[in-house]
Amino acid sequence: MSPNGGAPLEIGVCAPPERAADAAKAGFDFIEPSLASLAGMGDAEFVSARRGIDDAGIPARATNGMFPSELRLTGDGASLAEALEYIRRAFSRAAALGVEVCVFGSGGARRVPDGFPAERAWRQIADLLRGMQPVAAEFGIRVAIEPLRRAECNLINLVTEATAISAILGLPNVGALADTHHMNCVGEPLESLTLAGALLRHVHVSRSFGDDGGRVFPAMGDGEDYPALFRALAGAGYAGRVSVEAGCTDFSRDGAAAALALREASRAALSPA
Q1: What DSSP character marks residue 156?
Q2: Domains of the chain
Q3: What is d(CA 60, CA 65) in angstroms, rounded to the nearest whole number?
């Protein structure tokens, strides 16, 4: 039995507020908009976005895209004070929508500049996460560190790395994210999810086409072993949510197929062998 009482995990989709109604019609349980987009909205625009989500009858439970790429997090141009000032505004926006998990990927902002010492970059990220902890706790947000394929970022590429830094820092509101696309690109096995255990805070899933960056919405019979993913999550004691993060040609059609495929995979993983 899974840690959430044997029920399939909630399935969502990374989508902006204006696609909330489409996501609901496709059968998703929640949407995951960009945090940087929410933080960059004017007050009137944010009120309108929030109203649109409410009217669609589907919640926003997670966000991706935490930092805009121009806000440097590593290197000589990084400013911890500026980053924390931004994150307070961003988390306040997320909390107003009912978001529970904010994904920290942000490869452009996180990328270590050429020639900058890697050990200093790691310390900058650690200091940032320590600074984010009280803000996240204040707004009831859990931060999920996202490992990214090496073509997108040169720092934190593995779930095991995100898990390790979370464990070392020991921050209650900070954990790891697993994205099956990035895992496929770097050749990381699903066992990393089980090893992450309670530090696994969120999951992204897609059908991946390898290290060229291509990924699309999941579908039944597309060659990916989605039940294996959900079995690994059950082995980790994971009771969180899973978001589709990918491109598609027809949101209504492909979204409905993805929601159905993942829900069926989640149920299959719970069935006795």
Answers
A1: -
A2: 10-270 (3.20.20.150)
A3: 14
